[in-house]
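Memo to structure team: turn this sequence into structure tokens by end of day. - J.P.
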Amino acid sequence: MINDREDWTEMEHEKADIKKRMQYILNMRPVFNKEALFSDGTEYYRIPAEPKAGDTVTIKFRTQRNNVDSVYLVSQEQRVQMEICGTENGFDYYSAQVTIGADIFRYYFEIQYGWVTCYYNNQGVCMKHEGRMDFEIYPGFDTPKWAKGAVMYQIYVDRFLNGDPTNDVVTGEYHYIGDKSVQVEQWNKIPAVMGVREFYGGDLQGIMNKLDYLQDLGVEVIYLNPIFVSPSNHKYDCQDYDHIDPHIGRIVADCDGLLSPGDSDNSHALKYIRRVTDKRNLEASNKLFQELVEEIHRRGMKVILDGVFNHCGSFNKWMDRERIYENQEGYEKGAYVSADSPYRSFFCFQDQNRWPYNPTYDGWWTHDTLPKLNYEESEELCRTILDVGRKWVSPPYNVDGWRLDVAADLGHSNDFNHHFWKEFRRTVKEANPDAVILAEHYGNPESWLRGDEWDTVMNYDAFMEPVTWFLTGMEKHSDEYREDLYGNSEAFIGAMKHHMQSLHMGALYGAMNELSNHDHSRFMTRTNEKVGRAATLGTAAAEEGIKPAVFREAVVVQMTWPGAPTIYYGDEAGLCGFTDPDNRRTYPWGKEDIVLIDFHRDIIRIHKEHEALRTGSLMFLKGDDNLRGDDNLRGDDNLRGDNNLRGDDNLLCYARFNRREQFVVLVNNKEQERDVELEVWQCGIPKKAVLERVIISNETGYSLMPKQYEVADGVLKISLQKYSAVILMYDRSEN
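Reply from structure team:
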């Protein structure tokens, strides 16, 4: 027994000895620097970035120089050892080539360092492989190059500029949703709570008149809210998909014939009927739109139309519940009017015995003014809408793409939805291969972004929502305040990483990054942290207690974040407003915030001049008020410790970079000044370097005055003013 105990003791001593020797060997090597590990789907780390089936793709991975033993590219089918293909600025770059097939290609990286093995996926470094976080390549997915990082400008046409008073909707011209149309005489009047029937007179000629302004601002793409014939000012209740509404186009044939007091029968609305059914007006309006697109293209800009295809309007010529078209030459009977209508299958009627004038059709979300289109039971409807999609991206109109309203609501099932959008994409791309298909979508859009349906989305989840919560604590409708999300960097980064996972690189860089739009409160109003709407708080409250400095912070993020920064008309001029319809106030011509417009013009120019801000890599940087993580910490896995940001620090730091230039963006959303130490070497900035300040925004405004900041040992020390945002640049070509 004694001998056994002595043998056991000797074995333990030997184990301890071995452990000491192993520890000594490890200490002789450089610490494994996991923060140097990097790859993504940009064109430097994946060549080509958007390959087709059968292409050979070069995939790259970055490590600290002489810091790892081996790197493997791992996919479902193979594990390929990567070779060093270059060394630059303290980093080793590994590469491997793979040939992809027709299916989605998923991959991750395996890194070996001594006895340590870790992995790198779309979320960064991890100790255990998780398949759902793999990088993904969708063969054949090809987002139009012009859309990536493009500066877009959204125009709600009725509220932008009245360029032609002769086409204005007249008070009493027709009846809609309980009352008659209203011509607003005062341009600056605040929209009524039920303002769907109010018309301010904005039109295509108004846009034409302001193209100099938009071009000077730096706009590259104009996105128009719906412009087809419609009885509302928002026009999400389409009446005729084949024609531009003469009320925003041209009226060359007109007549008298307003509704009499107390009369709500639109078959008596003779003036309206003439304006929207007379082919002379419709053709003249289409011609004006053609001229507008030609002029936009001549200036080097593009234009996107709003397609509302899951429902139409009760005024629609296919339904004709208002009997606008019933007795007009050249028009078929609508499905509401007659059981023999060629459009009967376009809608779903619950009672097959109610004709003539059958009101039992399905409405979108039960709204009888928004008849639901019945695609599954009508091949003719499918062909017709596909023809609409083709028509407007083809000559003579040559529109550059579609924004698809609530696209996932089309049809009655997901299966059909996917089927239709595949056909829509095929049809549109055959007519105009460079057209973009951009969908409005809430939630995970991944199943629609596989290269055969949508190109990209309106970026609510991976931009608008996280930015709003972080900078204001407000929900995008101003319906809720979340103190736990206000200034919470950890929550912001977590949300961004999670939702960007659903937007692979091609879709992400074309995604429409908005701060405001026609559905949500103005971002400027959200900065006042008032919960409510115009109906409960009053419209004046939308402008009370606003923080322009916070809004400028948001614009800095918008212009430096992956995606297509999209300005909602008037945001650049300081427009306020609670959610719909208060967010649809008129552009404040003559009363605009000129300094804020100048700020937009300058930061748009910065965005456009630097490819790293359009299509470069993104990296979150770690730093806080003189708080740095213990970089010397080692666990059993010999990994460096994390510098995780505190959840309530109101500090956001990230980098946008490519091989030639690196940008550091810092946002201090705090009411106090702060000194920050920030590691910047991870984005390719040399350990010893000088960064140039490109722009700074703060409480008093903004400045383009250059200022230099030194980087020592890879660390930037900087003082940040309260409520400020700073962009710093390192240009390798100049150093």
